[in-house]
Write a structure and sequence with these properties.
Helix content: 25-40%
Shape: globular
Radius of gyration: 18 Å
Number of domains: 1
Order of helices and strands: EEEHEEHEHHHEHEHEEHH
């Protein structure tokens, strides 16, 4: 196993007196694809917000690549992490302008050859000049993924990136995620309700339930020989309270 990219210890997140996340310990390793599964309200998206430094933990310790992590983390470190949400918020501009935006902010204009390569890989070449609001849901999500990847992040956080998309778009997005993980060693944390997706692309899978980490294991073991009854019930599709 590689070195941890994130190390969380005794982490809690509290909103209005209600604890929505309560993790004893979790390590996320550099270069892995980790799937976070669990029912709605389990704390998965809240965890992503902590991992992307959007909010601080109420209690506990989060370390990012060996450094204490918080919203006040150095900008250069924060730029190593990017997120793609379930409903992407694209600029009211062309597809091409959306791709160029992030690198432009960093003073590193996107080379035309790299832009063309990404557009081709995601099947977006013919849509490069089209206004983003006119895209279908699948097309918009592909643009959001490319927009994140052109910044060459060390960590990609994905919050239900293929929810409600057709199988063709799901396949394209999953293939790109896996290819970039293998090519660059990028760490990927994927929140998904699709356990089949977790089985397809994640090296490890973690179950969150009522804000707590129930089990984290190699994906094959997680689904075929889980160590906790709650995990086995979740995999079977049973409801557990």
């Amino acid at each position: 196993m590689s070195q941890p990219m994130y190390e969380l210890a005794q982490v809690q997140k509290v909103y209005d007196g209600r604890t929505v996340l309560n993790l004893d310990q979790l390590s996320i390793y550099s270069g892995e694809i980790l799937a976070l599964v669990g029912p709605s309200g389990a704390g998965k998206s809240t965890l992503l917000r902590l991992l992307n430094f959007l909010e601080p933990a109420s209690r506990g310790s989060i370390r990012f690549d060996g450094q204490p992590a918080s919203p006040e983390l150095d900008l250069a470190q924060r730029r190593r992490v990017t997120t793609v949400f379930q409903r992407p918020l694209l600029l009211q501009r062309s597809v091409r302008a959306n791709l160029r935006y992030g690198p432009g902010l960093r003073g590193q204009p996107l080379p035309e050859a790299v832009e063309a390569q990404w557009l081709e890989r995601l099947g977006l070449t013919a849509l490069a000049g089209q206004a983003a609001p006119k895209l279908s849901a699948g097309e918009a999500q592909r643009v959001a993924l490319v927009r994140a990847l052109v910044t060459q992040p060390d960590v990609l956080l994905l919050d239900e990136p293929t929810a409600n998309l057709d199988p063709a778009n799901v396949s394209i997005i999953e293939a790109i995620i896996q290819a970039e993980n293998q090519r660059s060693g990028m760490t990927v944390v994927l929140v998904t309700h699709n356990i089949f997706q977790a089985r397809r692309i994640a090296q490890r899978t973690a179950l969150l339930w009522a804000g707590k980490l129930i089990e984290v294991a190699e994906t094959e073991q997680f689904f075929n020989a889980p160590g906790r009854e709650e995990t086995a019930a979740f995999v079977r599709g049973d409801t557990v309270y």
